[in-house]
Amino acid sequence: MSVTSASALHYPWSDAPAPGQTVEVAPGVLWMRMTLPTALNHINVWALADGAGWTVVDTGMHTPSTVDAWNELLSAQGPLQGRPVTRVISTHMHPDHVGMAGALVRRFGARLWMTRLEYLHCRVLVSDTGRPVPPDGVHFYRRAGWNDAQLAGYHEKFGSFGRFIDQLPDSYRRIEDGEELTIGAHTWQVLVGQGHSPEHACLYCPQLNLLISGDQVLPRISSNVSVHPTEPDADPLSEWLASIEKIRHAVPNTTLVLPAHNLPFKGLHERLDALARSVHTGLTQLLLALREPQRTIDVFGSLFARPINDPSLLFMATGESQAHLNHLIQQGRVVVDHVDSHQAAWYRAA
Questions:
Q1: Could you say which architecture CATH assigns to the domain 2-132+161-281?
Q2: Integer Cα distance of 166 and 104 in angstroms
Q3: Is 1's pLDDT higher than 80?
């Protein structure tokens, strides 16, 4: 993720609710915030009035602090007034969005609603727990230019995806692009985006002029758009750019955007323009750098403003750099110059 300019945006609220508290952003729409044990230290989650209960959108990770926050919110004296959770909608499969879904579903006899690819992809990644590192994964990162110490970090990290995800329900209710969901007195349209994850669901309510954007549109950072070892030739950047245009045409600029991170904001189209600009700027800088052959790990300086020293950032930076390279390869503007004796690929401008 990279930080980008947000000066053109308007933020109706300057402060977020404390864990266990809520802010009403529209009639029957409550904003809640959960802490995360990561550098990006929070996630916004949402409760939508739904008859005698609440539809919850995204959940936070399954951690003791998040369990405590949900218990406080759902207590008889809490901000959710002791009313039950009637369904859980997860925008996508990342642990901060789906981590508490299973616990909430079991507690209230509710149901998990997700897109098919997100639900199934999450189940697959969680199933990696306890598995040995796959040779294809080692090959992917070695080809990117990782050294033995960095590959040792991959061995340590592999299989940890499910660490902050409570057991997912064994069944779910599929939601699809273009579907209309009746939640309480309002209708929400499912708007699927791609690039950051395979089938990310945003929820748009024309009546309330609200967009729950998940990670698809964030005001201050750009979501990680990565290639992963499971699909090394993928071009998620094309999907990301197409999704930017799709959202621009589907949702008015006057809409209040409720993102998963940072603060709710207005100025959707300006933000989408900035996200697209950032991609094209990165591609231009990358092409200039590739006048001389470079490995995936060598192009970080062309794409990221800060050094990539943290091991957790190394995964994201590698995946995002590979996404840029694959995009240019698909366009015929970059080729593999050679593969060296360490199995690392060197790329150059065509």
A1: 4-Layer Sandwich (3.60)
A2: 10
A3: no
Instruction: Tell me the C-alpha distance between 143 and 319, whole Å.
Output: 12
* Token pair recorded at residue 206: 């024309």
Of the pLDDT bands very low, low, confident and very high (cuts 50, 70, 90), residue 130 is confident
CA distance 58 to 47: 9
Closest C-alpha to 348, from 331, 329, 330? 329
The answer to whether residues 140 and 134 touch, using CB atoms and an 8 Å cutoff, is no
Q: Confirm if 179 and 191 have CB atoms less than 8 A apart.
A: no
What does the pLDDT look like over 251-264, one tens digit per residue? 999 999 999 999 99
Query: CA 198, CA 302: separation in Å to the nearest integer?
Result: 26
Q: HSE of 321 in the Cβ direction (CA atoms, 13 Å)?
A: 29
d(CA 180, CA 3): 33
The candidate with the shortest Cα–Cα distance to 18, out of 77, 84, 63, 78, is 78
- Report which of 205, 281, 206 is spatially closest to residue 241, judged by C-alpha positions: 281
The residue among 263, 258, 248 whose CA lies nearest residue 203 is 258
CB 204 within 8 A of CB 250: yes
Residue type, 206: P
